[in-house]
Fold this protein.
Amino acid sequence: MADRKKKDQAKAAKIKVQYYRSMIACPEKHKKIVVGLGLRKLNQVVERPDTASTRGAVAKVPHLLRIVE
């Protein structure tokens, strides 16, 4: 059963999110969204599962993040 779960997770769609604009003058809520996605440094790219919640977080701060690929 554990093997099947690992295979399902490997097949799950992923998106790459890049943090490309500084959040210095942004509201605290925007900063928390960026940090919540695991982004710390400028131009950093992270891979996250392609879910509605991840896409919604990226859509909240399109001026700071972009989807790569």
